[in-house]
Amino acid sequence: MKTWGGATLSLGLACLLAFALAVAFGETALTTGQWREAVLDPWSGPADVLWRIRAPRALCALCVGAALGAGGAVMQGLLRNPLAEPGVLGVSAGGGAAAALAIVAGLAVVPGAVELAAIAGAGLVAAALLVFVGRVSSPAGLILFGVALSSLGAAGTALVFNLAPTPLAAAEVMAWLMGSVENRGWTEVLWIAVPTAVAGWLAHLCGPGLRALALGEDTARTLGLSLDRLRLFALLSASLAAGAAVAVAGAIGFVGLVGPHLVRRFVRDDPARLWLPSGLAGGLILVLADLTVRVIPTEQELKLGVVTSLIGAPLFALIAARAARSWRS
């Protein structure tokens, strides 16, 4: 318990520190006088930079990373597979395809339209997964079905991109697919914070069931666990988290996979207590990654999804190699 509590507290403090750094530093450095003006005059230019540009952007990154990290932990517990995450089941791809369609259809000018489309797309994939689980309870079968849905979502996104009516619409879809929290405001913070809180509550409800499921399905049933209820809550949690993350930040890869693995040893592989530190780890990763892309002196700001993929892909390979060695042994 002390290990879990200490890790959670440390990650929480690290997230607060990273958030403070993300607000304090950026492309434009503020002088001491400008800092004083930002604190004393909420309508000044420096206040706009700190509280209406940097702060909501950093908070969006924190919430998106937390949603992806917690969603990955829930999926790994449900499928009893260390390589699982919402993206593996096609949830992120479904949300991405729906959001891309909304952008090409010109709905980006309507407040909340793209976000609702992404959440709806992720929800449709989650519904398909629930129908499949009702017929085939095998975790391996669920993963294969999820991979098929992911490929279908990617194909749908490519089709939308290919049929974009104008080069500008295609460029908007491409920029969105690369993933970013640039120019996000307090409205986007609400779009990600509320679904993330609900997803966290569902993950908490899944905790005892995931712990029992780790002993095997037969043992879990003898303990009185309702597998159908567990699968429903777990898929809803992961889908809501992934859909909201895609809606606000676009495609952000590998955070949901890497986050749980960074903290797994602190919870002694207890899936009931993995989701919270995983969410904090995911949030910390994304805030630091976004701060990095803001301070790197490049002519054009790097996309957040590109950076997370460049870092996450080698980590994924290491995790897969370690998992393969454990399976052989």
First-residue to last-residue Cα separation: 29 Å
Morphology call = globular
Per DSSP E runs of 2 or more residues, the count of β-strands stands at 0
Strand content: under 5%
Q: What top-tier CATH class fits best?
A: Mainly Alpha
Instruction: Identify low-pLDDT runs.
Output: none
- Cα gyration radius (Å): 20 Å
Explain what this protein looks like in three dimensions:
With 329 residues, the protein is mostly helical. It has one domain: ABC transporter involved in vitamin B12 uptake, BtuC. It has helices at residues 2-24, 32-40, 45-79, 91-104, 113-135, 139-162, 167-177, 186-213, 217-222, 227-249, 255-263, 275-295, 304-328. Helix 3 (45-79) crosses helix 11 (255-263), helix 3 crosses helix 12 (275-295) and helix 8 (186-213) runs antiparallel to helix 10 (227-249).
